[in-house]
User: Which sequence fits this backbone?
């Protein structure tokens, strides 16, 4: 713990002896551990600010409305709403890496004692180098693909980028933990507390105290009003636009109406509308999603099928220089997949750092003391 | 079944707390009076307290295993589950510390810590909730385990800091407390590093990027920097003779500030800041 020699204790101020040329003074500052600590603290403070200010493109009117005039202008001036990409934050990070190198390289000895911390410090260089590669040549973007269609490019912030292959979505599969929960919310009159009734054709039940009743007459999964036949039909057996028809009997008479799960506040009345009387809402809540996956075929430049694959969340697909991720889907139809496409040649560098860093730290804390103890015993 | 184990664990640690506190107070009072010996009944009390902690740890482990079997998914995805691992990590740190040092108050701090964590756990909905697609990965287990055990270690260091500031501020205690506090935070730092790195690897697998500056990630980095500054500052502060005596105070300050950042990373980000990670709340 106290093996560090005193050179690291030098403060930046003490390093500024006037005879030294400027470059040498900078170098000594860069080599000082105190300077590194100040940098770390500054980066930490900057990060805190970055989590308090919403990260989004700067909009002066919005910022001033939200933070007040002086603060709102400051957010714009310092780029606080896109803090992690500002020149000054990147400069801080660069200085930090430079400082890490300056602290490590000149002190590098082939001794066990400096091996662990050298590995840790080196791992930071790997990680930052990898991030730099990503920033310079990496590409990332999204593409939406409906079932049966093929895409050959994806959208990035800088425009469309060609994949160099075709990707056809053969099937989009979504699996849920439970069947959808369907209920009819019924209140005797506007403004009163609703209760739940099951959605079952033929189910009939009283509403309120004045003898009104409701009966479920019909269910269609895909409601369409056919203009030719002048009647309601189901365009498919998929729950695209689920609707139920109910008959409401009150003292004033009888009405039938359609209720829609997708538009719970709308109802299509037959035989006269009523904004009085029993209030009905048809609610359909899909069960929580268990998994969703894109079954795809990869096509080469000539359009020949080269392979089939399934892309799931947590199971991306590597094709050429791209990695394709299952990102989302169209919740309306559940038949169109959103894929994220990433090309990041910096990843091997970053992951090397990721492996090196914990190993180096574990070495410093748990292996080096063993040798130190042995050395002490020998003395 | 798992709810029963949880209640048993909570009851055991809650029952152990006054016993442990009594042991700590009596031992401290005797030492202040210059009596270093430990009569048999006091040693017996210490044994009893440690037995209670072992039993509580067994019940806590049984809770985790039972929940795992009953819910059908690894218990690492919501607050009650991850907090249980934090308590588990705190116990682990306690047992290892106890192998090396014997100090009045250590037992009481462990009981208090676990009781506090379990009490916080009970404020959340305990019902198991099936895993959403992004969480269905083996990285979930590794990532949450390492992060939560590191939080347990940082909590232990925080409790040590309180003990030192409030009770132990004597010169003789300094060296032992310093070593214990330093080792605890170093262990936490290693695990937090593994936790952040595994989170980054997982993020690359699930979302296509290893780092996105989302508030949870950023706060974990801030926390990591605080403990990183501590480890380096120690190298400067402890290298001179006079500096050594200030180390326990340095440890305490960083243990408290670091744990505040840890808490913010864990709770604050979910409830006070918008975050991609916030689906893990609840
Ligand atoms: C976030 C980045 C960094 C991490 C994670 C890190 C990690 C570590 C670790 C784990 C140790 C061993 C600590 C110990 O023995 O108790 C260490 C030692 C050290 N670090 Fe860093 N470090 C970082 C950045 C820096 C920077 C920027 C500098 C210099 C300006 C620096 C200078 C040193 C020095 C001089 C030692 C002592 C080396 C020795 O005696 O073996 N570190 N570092």
Assistant:
């Amino acid at each position: 713990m106290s093996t560090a020699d005193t050179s690291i204790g030098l403060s930046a101020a003490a390093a500024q002896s006037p005879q030294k040329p400027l470059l040498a003074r900078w170098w000594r500052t860069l080599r000082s551990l105190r300077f590194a600590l100040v940098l770390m603290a500054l980066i930490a403070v900057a990060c805190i600010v970055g989590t308090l200010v919403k990260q989004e493109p700067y909009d002066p009117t919005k910022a001033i409305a939200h933070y007040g005039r002086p603060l709102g202008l400051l957010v714009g001036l310092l780029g606080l709403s896109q803090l992690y990409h500002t020149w000054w934050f990147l400069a801080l990070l660069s200085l930090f890496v430079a400082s890490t190198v300056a602290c490590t390289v000149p002190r590098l000895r082939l001794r066990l004692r400096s091996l662990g911390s050298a590995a840790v410090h080196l791992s930071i260089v790997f990680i930052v180098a990898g991030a730099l590669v990503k920033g310079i040549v990496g590409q990332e973007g999204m593409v939406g693909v409906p079932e049966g269609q093929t895409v050959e490019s994806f959208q990035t912030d800088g425009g469309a980028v060609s994949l160099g292959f075709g990707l056809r979505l053969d099937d989009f599969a979504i699996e849920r933990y439970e069947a959808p929960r369907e209920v009819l919310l019924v209140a005797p009159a506007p403004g009163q507390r609703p209760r739940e009734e099951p959605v079952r054709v033929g189910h009939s039940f009283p509403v309120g105290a004045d003898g009104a009743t409701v009966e479920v007459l019909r269910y269609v999964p895909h409601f369409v009003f056919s203009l030719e036949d002048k009647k309601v039909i189901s365009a498919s057996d998929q729950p695209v636009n689920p609707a139920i028809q109910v008959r409401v009997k009150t003292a004033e008479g009888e009405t039938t109406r359609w209720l829609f799960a997708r538009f719970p506040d709308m109802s299509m009345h037959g035989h006269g509308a009523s904004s009085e009387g029993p209030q009905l809402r048809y609610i359909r809540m899909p069960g929580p999603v268990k998994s969703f996956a894109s079954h795809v075929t990869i096509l080469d430049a000539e359009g020949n099928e080269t392979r089939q694959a399934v892309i799931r969340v947590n199971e991306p697909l590597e094709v050429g220089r791209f990695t394709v991720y299952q990102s989302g889907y169209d919740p309306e139809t559940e038949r169109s997949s959103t894929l994220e496409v990433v090309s990041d040649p910096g990843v091997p560098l970053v992951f090397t750092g990721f492996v090196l860093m914990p190993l180096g730290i574990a070495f410093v804390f748990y292996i080096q003391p063993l040798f130190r103890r042995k050395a002490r015993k020998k003395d | 079944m798992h709810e029963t184990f949880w209640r048993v664990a909570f009851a055991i640690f809650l029952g152990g707390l006054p016993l442990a506190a009594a042991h700590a107070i009596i031992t401290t009072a005797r030492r202040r009076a210059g009596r270093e010996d430990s009569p048999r009944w006091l040693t017996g009390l210490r044994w009893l307290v440690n037995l209670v902690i072992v039993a509580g740890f067994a019940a806590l482990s049984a809770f985790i295993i039972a929940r795992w079997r009953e819910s059908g998914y690894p218990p690492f995805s919501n607050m009650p589950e991850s907090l249980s691992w934090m308590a588990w990590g705190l116990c682990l740190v306690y047992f290892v510390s106890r192998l090396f040092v014997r100090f009045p108050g250590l037992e009481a701090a462990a009981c208090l810590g676990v009781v506090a964590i379990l009490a916080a756990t009970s404020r959340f909905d305990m019902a198991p909730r099936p895993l959403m697609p992004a969480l269905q990965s083996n990285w979930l287990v590794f990532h949450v385990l390492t992060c939560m055990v590191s939080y347990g270690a940082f909590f232990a260091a925080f409790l040590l800091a309180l003990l030192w500031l409030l009770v132990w501020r004597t010169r003789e205690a300094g060296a032992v407390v310093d070593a214990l506090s330093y080792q605890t935070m170093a262990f936490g730092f290693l695990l937090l590093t593994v936790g952040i790195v595994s989170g980054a690897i997982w993020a690359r697998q699930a979302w296509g990027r290893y780092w996105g500056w989302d508030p949870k990630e950023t706060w974990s980095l801030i926390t990591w920097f605080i403990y990183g500054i501590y480890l380096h500052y120690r190298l400067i502060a402890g290298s001179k003779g006079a500096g050594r005596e200030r180390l326990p105070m340095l440890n305490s300050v960083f243990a408290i500030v670091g744990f505040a950042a840890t808490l913010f990373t864990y709770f604050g980000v979910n409830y006070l800041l918008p975050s991609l990670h916030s689906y893990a709340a609840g």
Q: What stands out?
A: Chain A touches chain B through 49 residues (CB under 8 Å). The pocket of protoporphyrin IX containing FE is lined by residues A 1, 3-4, 8, 33, 36, 96, 99-100, 103, 113-114, 117, 120-121, 124, 361, 364; B 228, 231-232, 235 (CB under 6 Å). DSSP finds seven helices and 18 strands in chain A.
